[in-house]
Write a structure and sequence with these properties.
Number of helices: 0
Oligomer: single chain
Mean pLDDT: 88
Order of helices and strands: EEEEEEEEEEE
Strand content: 35-45%
Helix content: under 10%
Radius of gyration: 14 Å
Distance between the termini: 41 Å
Number of strands: 11
Shape: globular
Strand order of the largest sheet: 2-1-11-10-7-8
Low-confidence stretches: 1-15
Structural class: mainly beta
């Protein structure tokens, strides 16, 4: 019988493919649901989206959900910055189809 190591407490797993609702699809092929109030992104293990690529800070950014399905990307003082559709941002409202970039990591926003 094969035994798998237990999942680390507090670490969110990527959502299954084909999941309905607002989500991010990244350049590594991972899909993350935007189903909570806040989704944190960075290289540190405690983030919801853990990205260990060059140019991604330990605590890089977060996506905040407001009522009515409004989402904001907020850079949390990262060393390398965040871009949306090629523009450097500190806080920006996200729209369907936006491309978020942090260092070598890219993700497309789906708000369908």
């Amino acid at each position: 019988m094969v035994s798998f190591p237990p999942k680390a407490a507090g670490v969110r797993e990527p959502s299954p493919r084909g999941a309905a609702g607002p989500h991010l699809l990244d350049n590594l092929g991972e899909l993350y649901l935007l189903d909570g109030a806040v989704l944190t992104i960075g290289a540190a293990r405690e983030n919801d989206v853990v990205v260990r690529l060059p140019g991604v800070s330990r605590q890089h950014a977060r996506i905040v959900r407001e009522g009515g399905g409004v989402f904001w990307l907020e850079d949390v003082g990262s060393r390398y910055g965040s871009t949306v559709n090629g523009a450097v941002v500190t806080r920006v409202r996200l729209s369907h189809g936006d491309e978020i970039a942090m260092g070598g990591w890219r993700a497309t926003v789906s708000l369908d």
